TrEMBL record, chain A:
Name of the protein in its database record: Putative spermidine/putrescine transport system ATP-binding protein
UniProt KW keywords: ATP-binding, Nucleotide-binding, Transport
Species classification: Bacteria, Pseudomonadati, Pseudomonadota, Alphaproteobacteria, Hyphomicrobiales
SMART domains tied to this protein: AAA
GO molecular function, one term: transmembrane transporter activity
UniProt record, GO biological process: quaternary ammonium group transport
PROSITE patterns documented for this protein: ABC_TRANSPORTER_1, ABC_TRANSPORTER_2
Keyword match Transport: yes
Source organism: Mesorhizobium tianshanense
The organism's place on the tree of life at top rank: Bacteria
GO cellular component, one term: ATP-binding cassette (ABC) transporter complex
UniProtKB/TrEMBL annotation, chain B:
Name assigned to this protein: Putative spermidine/putrescine transport system permease protein
Membrane topology: Multi-pass membrane protein
Domain annotation ABC transmembrane type-1: ranges: 52-249
Superkingdom per UniProt: Bacteria
GO CC terms in record: plasma membrane
Family annotation (PROSITE patterns): ABC_TM1 (PS50928)
Short name of any one Pfam family annotated for the protein: BPD_transp_1
Keywords assigned by UniProt, alphabetized: Cell inner membrane, Cell membrane, Membrane, Transmembrane, Transmembrane helix, Transport
Compartments, as annotated in UniProt: Cell inner membrane; Cell membrane
SUPFAM superfamilies attached to this UniProt entry: MetI-like
Amino acid sequence: MAEPFLSIQQVRKSFGATTVVQDFNLDVEPGEFVSFLGPSGCGKTTVLRMVAGFEEPSAGKIVVAGKDITRLKPNQRNVGMVFQAYALFPNLTVAQNIGFGLKVAGMPKADADRRVAEMLDLIKLPQMGDRYPYQLSGGQQQRIALARAIAPKPKLLLLDEPLSALDAKVRVSLREEIRSIQKKLGITTIFVTHDQEEALSISDRIAVMYGGKAEQVGTPFEIYNRPATKFVANFVGTLNVLEGTVTDAASGKVRVNAQEVSLKGKLNGSKSGDTLSLALRPEAISLGRHPGRDSSLSGEIAEVHFLGSVIRVRVGIGGSTVSLDTFNSPATPPPAVGEKAEISFSSGDMLVLH
Amino acid sequence: MKSGRFWAWVVFALGAAYFFIPLIATVEFSMRMRRGVYSLDAYKVVLGDPRFQATFGYSVLAAVFTIILGVLIVVPTAYWIRLRLPQLRPVVEFITLLPLVIPAIVIVFGYIRMYGSSSPLPFLASGRGTDALLVIGYATLALPYMYRAVDTGLRTIDVRTLTEAAQILGAGWGTIITRVILPNVLIAVLSGAFLTFAIVIGEFTMASLLNRPAFGPYLQNIGANRAYEPAALAIIAFAITWGCMSLIQILSRFAPRSANRPN
């Protein structure tokens, strides 16, 4: 296996008696785009700040391209970073902002000017060089911040929630732009976000963090479809959670609200009589019986929300409610509240949460 | 609504009268040197007095050095307190307020004991040494104004993020302070500088007790011995102050605006 480009090894960070990051390990391949995803206070930004050099780990080490950078100062690491609050220098023009790192590095002016022009073209703002940050929109400022971070050709790019201060539309277009620039330059990137859609849509891999630990590291497909813990399953995507009791561990039978479901091979050592949390993604459930879906549960329509192309239906099953989305069909009216309904799903899609 | 506006104008007129009447009276009196007619004789006498030029020049030079010293001390201190030691802010604020409650005369007597000609550091034994002590003393007197001005300026920018953004781009502390922090608090520094200038130009106690040829003792001397010239000097001092204020206003138009300001 090739040497990882960035290796975070057994990193811990404590502030006084509070430990905010514990035994964090992650290897990142060259050119990979890895997202740290988690709720506020889970330690994702602290890990990023340790990689940047703004915080010193209490234990563990950080290696970039085979070099231990754990104790290096931020200005000695050759790492680029984009901040949530843009952090453009208000007294400098756009071109001067982008050229700041080049000037500090002592690059000759002609070369620096050429690189600044190249960066402005890359972010598709070639005419903006003479403007000041306050004359730009939030999205433009963040693109300039990205150009400034990558202008000195850093080994590693760190993005600290760069999209969270922007409005929804700009956020989507900018995240695609960031990903396309990252791919074009092949720069190894760490992206911190609490927005699961953002992380799922642009990452090669995601580290889902909770309580200062990486709960699961995997591709977006793995994280979404095979969550390793209850937290990951709940945090990533919408999830319907049902309580079930193992009735026959050997054959994988589980009772859910007096109805039986077969989960053969998924019970992972559970014994008969154990209570389990079972989860189903909304898109894995259909209203009514469908071929290929081996399990079903009966209930009653509790809520119907017409959202245009999609109809969100909530079905009450015993004490629980299950959400599912169906496509709108002009020929079929949506189900009525109070109607008896049956939902079907493939038992293979049901997740057993530990 | 209309009546509210009327009373607002009345209050404004009263305030303006309170401010302008003594000023107009001083201007009027300063022009009465020649009997029976208004003239600028008092101004001519004052401006033509070599002692005016010498003392004013001395004080301007002392003010410039005081401002440089103040900026060198206050900007890094206020910056570091904001960035790394916010818990020490009340202590530093208290220290910077001390010159307002400790009279200048205490500092001068402290100087005489510490730096007299028989002490191990005989600064007062030479003119240059005394000038240096005077500038240091002036910087102390101006500390409350300079610190507050710079601290207020630092409050308008995101010191921590800008520092980190510069650091990650390879900048060291010198570059961060001179190219990122100072330009963004320049207007605040200028405000502090002009306040320092005003304090130094009019300061009497220190300059007099240290026996330096400054503008403050000259003003006092003229005030005690002449009739019309002190009024002319007061108006000249006003003009200098107003000039400084106008400069702050003009320069603040060129101040860099915050990148985080909502569009």
